[in-house]
Write a structure and sequence with these properties.
The protein is of the alpha/beta class. The chain contains ten helices and 13 strands. It has a domain at 5-173 and 218-244 and 281-294: Rossmann fold (3-Layer(aba) Sandwich), CATH 3.40.50. The strands form four sheets. The protein has a seven-stranded parallel sheet, sandwiched between helices. A two-stranded parallel sheet has the order 7-10. The chain has a two-stranded parallel sheet with strand order 8-13. The structure holds uridine-diphosphate-N-acetylgalactosamine.
Amino acid sequence: MSANPIVTGGAGFIGSALVRALLDAGAKRVSVIDNLASGKRENLAGVAERVDLHEVDIRDAGALKPLIKRGATVYHLAAIPSVPRSITDPNPSHEVNINGTFNVLSAARDAGARRVVYAASSSAYGDTEVLPKTESMRPAPLSPYAAQKLMGEYYCSVFHSCFGLETVSLRFFNVFGPRQDPNSPYSGVLSIFMKCVLAGTPPTIFGDGEQSRDFTYVEDVAELVMRAAEAEGVQGRVFNAGNGNRYTLNETWRLLCDIHGAAIQPRYGPPRAGDVRDSQADVTAAVRDLGHAPRFSFEEGLRRTLAWYAEAERTA
Ligand code: UD2
């Protein structure tokens, strides 16, 4: 019998979407490692009976080690995300994103795991002169978070070259969708936009709103992550996990208002430290080598996400 897939951060927004996708794709059970700092049990509602949830912090190497099984595929998504949080309070994000990743890779190596798929970040690129951003460009992180996520990639590649552990790093590009928590000062911008449009209140846009992002729908990311676990000849490599488009925040807010039938002017505040100006993925390598095939246009992703938040508010 093959080992159950393991998802670190599996009670989080992206992790729980991946858990659902793995179960839909035929996994009997999924093992989740999550300290429930930002992850939530309710994110696994409806699938909890097929999930073994281990409330363990990846900084705790001793507790982590026995949970990684021989032959298992490990999806390493546990992290402290957020550019601004890593600037306000860099220590915890350093410890989780770098030391925790090292612990996951070490445990995977020691156990003889089959492969580790790592959630890297598009922030690694920083500001590039050319768009879209391709994997061959030199990384130029602009924040501790970006540096930490890049270090995780380097560790993945070195665990492959030095220890023979199969790893694949995917640079996630601004993932959005159902279950993204809008209630923290560090929440992703689209979750905040969703909350504002439903409440009829203006969001605060940091800067002039002309910064752009390649917003990627969470189900497309989950699908790509699973493809990365199976693809041949990609061990040790790094791929963009984006949609391939980019929208400014001003365009995005307008689009969301149009979808909802609202007309609300945003507020503007000072630009945020550590922010990247423009972000757009070249997905050529992911399409060619991983079979990446995003199914959701940005607008369709926005519609689905808005419907989910509206329903969550209605039933709260
Ligand atoms: C970065 C990464 C992303 C992922 C994420 C995890 C880039 C380009 N992207 O996302 O891939 O790793 O980190 O946290 O580095 N903003 C507002 N108002 C708000 C909140 C945000 O204007 O209330 C702006 C923010 O200043 C930024 C944009 O919205 O320009 C996106 O911010 P975000 O925090 O959603 O994501 P970002 O781009 O830091």
